[in-house]
Amino acid sequence: DTSDGHATLYSGGDIEVASTTRETASTVVVGLALANTFSGAGSVDFLTLNNTNKASISEVDVHADGNLSVLATDIVDYTPGIGNVAISGTAAGGGSFLVMLNNNETEASMSGVVSNAKGVTLVHGWSVADIDAVAVVVGGGVKGSFMGSFSFYVSGTTTRGIIEGGSRAAEVNRDSSYDHAQQSVIVQATDDVTTSQVTGAASASIFGALGGALSYTEIENTVDAHIGSFARVSAQKDVIVSAESSKDITGASGGLGVAL
User: Fold this and answer.
1) pLDDT tens per residue, range 192-218
2) What are phi and psi of 176, to 5 degrees?
3) Are the C-beta atoms of residues 2 and 55 closer than 8 Å to each other?
4) Which of 9, 72, 97, 213 could lock onto 55 through a cystine, CB 3.0 to 4.6 A?
């Protein structure tokens, strides 16, 4: 039905529009150096994410006897392991460098939509990141040994759940014939981050040894759930707008230098 210039969708059950992106990676990077005079070993692992994931209903009429759902989900599961070994009869040097950048954008939206649902109208943007990283380096030299291990995780993701007007006002549950005791409207944006970083460096030498480790985490994620301008929303039960962010961060860093 496009009699008013907008497409119309009817369902005797549920209507769901969903988009899911999943980035799963497990990497191992290893360096090894052996020499009589000088040995140097280095390992680098670099990951950057700039994905855009959007699920939307725009400028249509939608009617469901059940639930109406618009879902955008982004899942990042990254498990890197990096390390190296450097041994020399004179001097040894080595470093492990692990860098992870996450700038993904996830959005679920209804814009300029006239909709009715007897059940739950759910607009939910959800981002999940699970990072388990290990970076280590070990070295030894007779005259000197210098080892460093570094791990960085920087996140600036954006997650949104939105109902708003478009070329016309958005109207949710305007038709009273769809009224039901369980009729609700929920607009959500959820961001869940779990990171675990272990960095370590060990160095041994007869004359001089240095071992250092650094773990750095920076999270500046944006979580936005809103019912915007030119939107009329009603429900027989609940209207909920919720933006939630959770962070579970654990880390361990250690450096050891032994001079005999």
Assistant:
1) 999 999 998 888 888 888 888 888 999
2) -65, -20
3) no
4) 72
